[in-house]
Amino acid sequence: MPFPDPPYEDIMGYLNEETGHSYEWKGPRGEKNRTLIRNLWKRGFRAKDFLRVIENKCAEWNHAPKHGQLDMRKFLRPATLFCAGKFEAYLNGG
């Protein structure tokens, strides 16, 4: 039995809402984002996991940096958050 499609719209909508961006999930421009999500979905991660990663990293990174700190807001994007190599660490607060 094939995997059900991940709720791309919900996941990307939440990311966009939390970051103020307009990352695509539909059409050719959203293919890379769908692929990132689909790959994690096939490994058993579910919508709640994606939302938790978005919440965790927004809480940590979505603020103006203090003097001398790196501005991490630029990393609040699908390519960083949904990277298979870091997703589980981000999910667990890392």
Tell me the strand percentage band.
Answer: under 5%
Largest sheet: none
Overall outline: globular
Question: Mean pLDDT, nearest integer?
Answer: 94
Q: Gyration radius, to the nearest Å? A: 13 Å
Report, as a whole number of angstroms, the end-to-end distance.
34 Å
Q: What series of H and E elements makes up the topology? A: HHHHH
Number of strands: 0
Q: Helix- and strand-based class?
A: mainly alpha
Number of domains: 1
The percent range for helix content is 40-55%
Count of discrete alpha- or pi-helical segments spanning 4 or more residues: 5
Low-pLDDT runs = none
Q: Could you walk me through the main structural features you see in this protein, from its secondary elements to its overall organization?
A:
With 94 residues, the chain is mostly helical. It has one domain. Helices cover 51% and strands 0% of the residues. It has helices spanning 8-19, 31-42, 47-61, 78-81, 87-91. Helix 1 (8-19) runs parallel beside helix 3. The termini are far apart. The model has no long low-confidence stretch (mean pLDDT 94).
